[in-house]
Every structure is written in C-alpha cells, then in structure tokens.
Amino acid sequence: MNVTGSKKNMQGIGQAKKAEMLDLKEPRLSMRRQCELLSYNRSNLYYVPSPRLSEFAEYRESVMNRLDYWNTLEPAWGIKTLVPLLRGEGFKVSPDFIRELRGEMGLETIYPKENTSKASKNARKLPYLLGRLRRDDMIWLPNLVWAVDLTYIKMARSHMYLIAIIDWFSRFIVGWDLADTLETAPVLDCVKRTIEKYGIPAILNSDQGSQFTSDGYMSYLSKKGIQQSMDGKGRWIDNVIIERWFRSLKTENIYINEYVSPRELGSGIDEYIGRYNFVRPHQSLHDKTPALVFESCFGKKD
Length: 302
Prior knowledge:
Blueprint: H1 15-21, H2 31-38, H3 44-47, H4 51-73, H5 79-88, H6 95-105, H7 131-135, E1 145-154, E2 159-167, E3 173-179, H8 184-198, E4 203-206, H9 215-223, E5 227-230, H10 240-254, H11 262-278, H12 290-298
Parallel strand pairs: 1-4, 4-5
Antiparallel strand pairs: 1-2, 2-3
Helix pairs in contact: 4-6
C-alpha cells in the first residue's frame, strides 16, 4: 500500500479510487488500518461489488480456513507461530491481520475450537452441572445429558456454522443444522426439533455464548423442565464430548472435501453423521455404535 500525507489529503479522492489503493496482501498493515489511513469506509469491503473486493473476500476466506484448520489440529499455536506458518503456505499476512481474523472467529490460543458463541457482558451465567456426574460416572443412560454447540465450517469460497447436539452417554448425534448466522433463532429451532424427535433431556449443557444466555433459549428450556448447564469461561474441556466430535468431523470430512454450496455441505455432513451414528463402532462404547447404545434404552429412531 502506498499512502502518503494525512487523512485530510485523502478527502478529495473518491471511494472507488481509494478501493484501488488498498493492498489486499500487504503484510505490514491490516485492512482495518489501511481503511483508516485512506478514510475509506470499511463496510464497503463487504457490500461494494467489484472484482478487487471480491478477490479480497475470497482471500479472507482462504486465510480463515487455514486458521480454523491449524487451530483444530494445534490449539496451542499462537500468532507468533501462525504468521510464519501461513507465510510459508503462500499467504502474505501480518500479525495484525491474523489477530483481526482470529478476533472475528473467536479463536484463542490453547482453545480447540472457534468460539463462535460469545457471551454478552450482561449475560446470565449458570453453573456447570456435570462435574460430579462425570467424576462419579453418573451419566449412565441416554437422554440424561445432552451437549449443544456451534462451530465454523469452511466451504470452497465461504463458510457456514454447524449447530450440533450430542447425547453424552451414547455419543449419538441427536440433532444438527447449518446456519449462515450466529443468531439464537437457528440454535433454538434445532433444539426444539431435536426434543420433538427424541424427547426431553434432564440436562442440556452449552458454553456461555449469547445464543445460550438469550431470554428465548433460557425460557424455553425452563418451560420444558430442562436443567441448563454452562461451561466455565474458556473451559472447552467441560463440553469435551461435542468438541471431540467437531474435531473428528473436520479432520475426517470437512478438510478433505471442497463443498461448494450449503446444500452440498449439508449432504456431506448428513452422510458423515449417518456413518458415525449407525455404522462406526466406538471403543468407548465397547465397540457398539452410538445408535445401538441409544436405541437399547429408547427403541429404534429413524
């Protein structure tokens, strides 16, 4: 990027010309900082149709995909490791740019997932109810405890968010859905459909994300008589069952495929879950499938 003079000198330059001055792969200045220096409206990066900005959007998606990949495999690697690593992969990135993307994705070092569900400052926090149950092996039947979470899912040129609900005892994926937003509505809809199909769990565990501390979500669980449990802050291990499943899904399916549309992605995830639930034996289940363990108590489910 070649910017000289003060912001005042930029006032006579049109937005289109400023857009041409942006350097998409400038390793020293983040796009946020370039926009500030040029007095360029950063929202135009996402809403102004132009081949140059389209190229930048694709570049961002590519970097985000790699950040998600490495964060899944090596959650302890921070920015000092990731910057030279991604540069070695051919990306012209700066620490500020990586920090900006990680902030948008909610990635934290030594955190094995993209923390897509962020709590608001005034959100109501509830205690974690699974500590003693797990320690004393008291989760001994299906539908005693479910875990729900969201995760970033890459596509060829964009991304979606996966909502998944797993039965803690049987490891059976009882519900899932794809969404293009991190709002509460698709999460609540997924929970409602899952309960309609499989019944009411005694406890539903989640992180402290805004989706799970919203009035709509919390009041629905309360009306259903479901005890709501929440991970401690930054405590991914508290919801380890769903975290491990997300990691398996990504390494065994998402990262080795190039899904080009939400429909294709949904079909691929559906096939993976079908094999996971009904075909694949689990050592922790004495080589039984999650479906077999779940059905042993509640009968066969379609």
